[in-house]
Design goal:
Layout lengths: L2 H11 L7 H8 L3 H13 L4 E4 L3 E4 L8 H5 L7 E5 L5 H10 L6 E5 L20 E8 L9 H18 L5 E3 L3 E4 L2 E12 L6 E11 L29 H17 L6 H7 L7 E6 L2 E10 L5 E5 L4 E4 L3 E3 L4
Parallel strand pairs: 3-4
Antiparallel strand pairs: 1-2, 4-5, 5-9, 6-7, 7-8, 8-9, 10-11, 10-14, 11-12, 12-13
Helix pairs in contact: 1-3, 2-3, 6-7, 6-8
Length: about 325
């Protein structure tokens, strides 16, 4: 670990309080000049650090840059966390790490994505410092069919975490979106590599993107009527993103450990926002009116069409907006 990382860890652990350069140097067994250089490097990276003679250095409490240390202070599970200012897509970066042998529990987090990925080949709007973009590497011994439960367990974990850090109620729109007040706040994309001989997953990557606060100038026109954020003002989200990520990861790993028993499925069904409602099935360029009837223990959605016939869906896209 570099001196810069060690200094950041100490500052995060003492956030809002001063720690002297001499104490940092002694704790880290480095020179005071090395500490000073690390402080300057952190400031260039955007960290707000107050320096006062005879008192030392203090990481401002309103400093809200994500780091493995800002997240780790709230995290119960031991995970290998990598945080980047900007990436193309956290799923893409983690896929490359998985192919190189990264272990289960490796997590990639970014402040911004310039090629965020959504389901059905869509892009995911990922502006800087207003959201969280998280991908988790798993190596479960499950079939392709069972991989749906990774997505549904992530939706439950995200909904719980949102409610932990805010006063909002989070609902789930089958199969992978989390909503607040009937607007989308989170999208989940699960990707995997399969062994053709065994039919089992070699690895899976669960990508989760959450709008934590509204971006400056609002959401782009194409999503402004359907998207929302956990917090109404950016000032309300200060120091909440790290907590949100930690809670999300802990809840997800808890659900993952129970993947066989699928205890989380009951909550997934209870949080559904579409049951009993008129919906549209989106199939390519076609939309098919239907009614959402039931979600079973396999997280399949039962729908009734206009001709009173029923269908069970294990994947796909639905909308609750009727034109």
């Amino acid at each position: 670990m570099s001196v810069k990382d060690e200094v950041l860890k100490q500052l995060e652990n003492n956030k809002g309080n001063y720690i002297s350069g001499g104490q940092l140097a002694k704790t880290l067994d480095v020179s005071r000049n090395s500490v000073w250089k690390a402080i300057k490097s952190l400031e260039k990276s955007g960290y707000q650090i107050d320096a006062v003679p005879n008192r030392g250095y203090c990481l401002a409490e309103k400093s809200d840059i994500l780091s493995s240390y800002s997240i780790g202070q709230y995290l119960k599970n031991k995970l290998d966390i990598h945080v980047y200012p900007i990436v193309s897509s956290t799923n893409t970066v983690l896929k490359e790490m998985a192919e190189q042998g990264a272990s289960e529990g490796t997590v990639v987090i970014a402040e911004e994505q310039n090629a965020g990925k959504g389901r059905m080949g869509k892009s995911f709007y990922s502006p800087s410092k207003t959201g969280i973009y998280v991908s988790i590497l798993l190596r479960p011994s499950i079939s392709a069919e069972e991989s749906l439960f990774l997505t549904t367990s992530a939706a439950v974990a995200t909904a719980r975490a949102i409610e932990d850090v805010s006063d909002k109620t989070a609902d789930i729109k089958w199969v992978n979106d989390v909503y607040i007040n009937n607007k989308k706040v989170c999208g989940i994309l699960t990707e995997g590599a399969f062994n053709a001989e065994t039919g089992q997953l070699d690895y899976a990557i669960v990508g989760i993107g959450v709008n934590v606060c509204f971006p400056e100038g609002g959401f782009p026109a194409e999503i402004e009527n359907v998207a929302t954020a956990v917090f109404d003002k950016q000032t309300d989200s200060t120091n909440k993103r790290s907590m949100l990520i930690a809670h999300l990861l802990d809840y997800f790993m808890e659900n993952y450990k129970e993947l066989t028993s699928k205890k989380f499925v009951k909550e997934y069904i209870e949080r559904s926002m579409i049951l009993g409602k008129e919906i549209l099935l989106i199939e390519g360029n076609n939309t098919i009116p239907a009614t959402a009837m039931e979600i079973d223990k396999k997280c399949r959605l039962k729908v009734k069409l206009k001709d009173d016939t029923t269908r069970w869906l294990s994947s796909g896209e639905v909308s609750i907006r009727i034109n």
